[in-house]
From TrEMBL:
Keyword Nucleus included in the entry's annotation: no
Keyword Mitochondrion: no
Lineage, top ranks: Archaea, Thermoproteota, Thermoprotei, Sulfolobales, Sulfolobaceae
Name this polypeptide is given: ABC-type dipeptide/oligopeptide/nickel transportsystem, ATPase component
GO MF annotation terms: ATP binding; ATP hydrolysis activity
């Protein structure tokens, strides 16, 4: 097991109250594996990614749990040790909206070299930039361009190259295909699959788009209101979902044979005052009395699926 998250809690202290964005989350990632974190907006997906990178934005705080990288709890490390030894070197992240993350007044090459320099890369900078661009299927000459001279897909691949600059073992990809057209989305997915195979890279793929997720992940975690509702192998999640939330999300995937696409009625609960019991209870078509009184525990099934639901 390369990475394990145990009982993670991340709360945001706002004027309206304490928002429990991530509330007792457990997950794991093996070497060379791609896992998906999926769910509606506000479910806690991106917050988990930022927490693994130890970049939780203010006013958020990590209030409990452990994040183990090869058995070591990285939450107990001081910031300087984590920055030097883990951030970007062992764990890197493609941030949501990263296409706009490049500084517009510097060439792409110079921005990648800055990452190498700050983190103490001892090799040839120009050679490394060339290697990285070839790795993401780009002409190395494009590294001499400014960000505005590249297309959206090119900028995204360039950012992936920068994230891989220090040979990390884990890549967190937060909505890496947002704002890209369908063909470019497919190219990005194929690129991530290629990198997984060639580098034995482990990937945490964060998305709200289940159609994309079904094409890339080995296992998935379905998140809602800061909780994992269901987790398991992708073929189980998409072909035999057990949790009503997962089933409704899968039904909402647009396909050519569907005349009507169903949404999930209602909206996400206020996480500063989450509902008692199951957090999906007010929107669930199968909710019973116990769902409003007691939170369900995870139940494991023989096919690798785990579900937190009182139906089982």
């Amino acid at each position: 097991m390369l990475l394990e998250v145990r009982n993670l809690k991340v709360y945001f202290y706002t004027k309206r109250g304490i928002v429990k964005a991530v509330d007792d989350i457990n997950l794991y990632l093996d070497k060379g594996e791609i896992i998906g974190l999926a769910g509606e907006s506000g479910s806690g997906k991106s917050t988990i990614g930022y927490t693994i990178m130890r970049l939780v934005p203010f006013p958020g705080k990590i209030e409990g749990g452990e994040i183990l990288f090869k058995g070591e709890n990285i939450l107990k490390l001081d910031e300087e040790t984590f920055r030097k030894n883990y951030r970007w070197k062992k764990i890197a992240m493609i941030f949501q909206g990263s296409m706009s993350g490049f500084t517009p007044v510097f060439k792409i090459r110079d921005q990648i070299i800055e990452v190498l320099r700050i983190h103490g890369w001892t090799g040839d900078y120009d050679k490394r930039v060339e290697e990285l661009f070839k790795m993401v299927n780009m002409d190395p000459q494009l590294a001499e361009k400014y960000p505005h001279e590249l297309s959206g897909g090119q900028k995204q691949r360039a950012f992936i190259a920068m994230a891989l600059a220090l040979n990390p073992e884990i890549l967190i990809a937060d909505e890496p295909t947002t704002a890209l057209d369908v063909m470019v989305q497919e190219h990005i997915l194929n690129l991530l699959k290629k990198l997984r195979k060639e580098l034995n890279l482990s990937i945490i793929f964060i998305t709200h788009d289940l159609a994309l997720l079904s094409e890339i992940s080995d296992r998935d975690y379905m998140l809602y209101a800061g909780k994992v509702m269901e987790s398991g192998p992708s073929e189980v999640i998409f072909k035999k979902p057990r949790h009503p939330y997962t089933s409704l999300l899968v039904e909402s995937i647009a396909t050519l044979d569907k005349d009507i696409i169903k949404g999930i009625p209602g909206s996400m609960p206020d996480l500063s005052n989450p509902p008692v019991g199951c957090r999906f209870n007010t929107r669930c078509p199968f909710a019973r009395d116990i769902c409003f009184k007691e939170e369900p525990k995870m139940k494991a099934f023989s096919d690798g699926d785990e579900v937190a639901c009182w139906l089982y």
